[in-house]
Amino acid sequence: MHPHYSGIYCERSNKNSTGDVMRKAIFLLLGLAAADAGAEQRQLLWGDTHLHSTYSSDAYTNNNLTGDPDTAYRYARGMPVIHPYHKARVQIDTPLDFLAVTDHAEFLGQIRNIHLNGVDTSELGPWDTIKAKVAALVLNWTIDHGTGRDLFVRVLPDPELTPLEDAKASSIGGGDLSLLPMPRQVEIDTWRSITETADKYNQPGVFTALIGWEWSSLPGGANLHRIVLTDSDKSVAQMYEPFGLDDSPFPEDLWAWLEKTSTETGARFSAIPHNSNISKGYMFSASNLRGEPFTAESAAQRSNGSTSPKSHRLKATQNPTLRFRRKMSLPILRFTLSISNASGHPTSRNAATSSGKP
User: Fold this and answer.
1) Which of 254, 271, 318, 329 has the fewest CB atoms within 10 Å of its CB?
2) Do 71 and 59 form a contact (C-beta atoms < 8 A)?
3) CB distance 63 to 146 below 8 Å
């Protein structure tokens, strides 16, 4: 799990809360959302908008075999948990105010399922069954021996291709991964578990469990990843499946999907640029990835779904500004989100560790 701590300034409303425990809308603001709020009206909240659990393919192949969303939320709430790598008991000194578990949408839960339950060859012919079983054997042996990173590196995009060439080739489905059946039902069940766990730990006025995922486009090594957050509760979030690189590597297709899904379900989304400093400039291009110039319509569609980052070289130092409103007993009108830099979280939030049992 990778903590990217965030600070939020909250401007309180003078109106009484409705008491409804479901989340209010999440929405985007370019600029400082709470700049006009008096200092006495603000409350600083701390949390994490980007965390991978054992359901992410890269996390699992890199031996996060036990750190599921339940573990993440327990840790964020200040409860002791067992660290998925060194197995020590860890506990944060001061609980967080909010957390979003944002696993990669691509192959969601699939690597974990193959490792734990075996590969599903029920719809394969004899030769494809043999290839799938051999591929699963290699995958499982690699994970069991702690060398999963080697497999992860092998599926990274070809840096010799331009981002447009790689995006058109849709290389995510090629290579060794194409030998492994990836049943859609696994991803549906995993998404259901993620959303239900978020609702389980969402406690209005005390702790906010946001639902989200990571869209992981990396054409030609140009990092175009976005962390997609939504105001959906589980009942709304389960009406759709997270849009991933395996749906499209083109950002404009993500914007179109967010707009369409918002219209169909009533959910609202905000996509935070992730590691834009290694996008090879494509996050800041005057044209889209297909080489088409932005129009007023396409620019508006993008701005409706994406935050504006203040990019820095260090990981997780983008500072998008968002407004969050959610149905909670603590009346909140607006938030300003600012992700801290890689030098770390304030010392009061550092994790305490011990080798004892929970």
Assistant:
1) 329
2) no
3) yes
At 140 the three-state DSSP class reads helix
Among 239, 220, 26, 216, CA closest to 108? 216
Cβ count within 10 A of residue 205: 14
pLDDT in tens, 96-122: 999 999 999 999 999 999 999 999 999
Rounded to the nearest angstrom, the gap between the alpha carbon of residue 98 and the centroid of all alpha carbons in its chain is 14
User: Would you state the pLDDT for residue 10?
Assistant: 46
By CB neighbour count within 10 A (0-12 exposed, 13-18 middle, 19+ buried), where does 238 fall?
A: middle
With beta carbons less than 8 A apart as the criterion, state whether 344 and 11 touch: no
- Which residues fall within 8 angstroms of residue 331, CB to CB, at 6 or more apart? 12, 13, 15, 16, 17
Distance CA 79, CA 84 (A): 15
* Contact indicator for 307, 321 with CB cutoff of 8 Å: yes
Distances (CA, A) of 347 to 5, 74, 94, 340: 12, 20, 10, 13
The residue type found at 306 is S
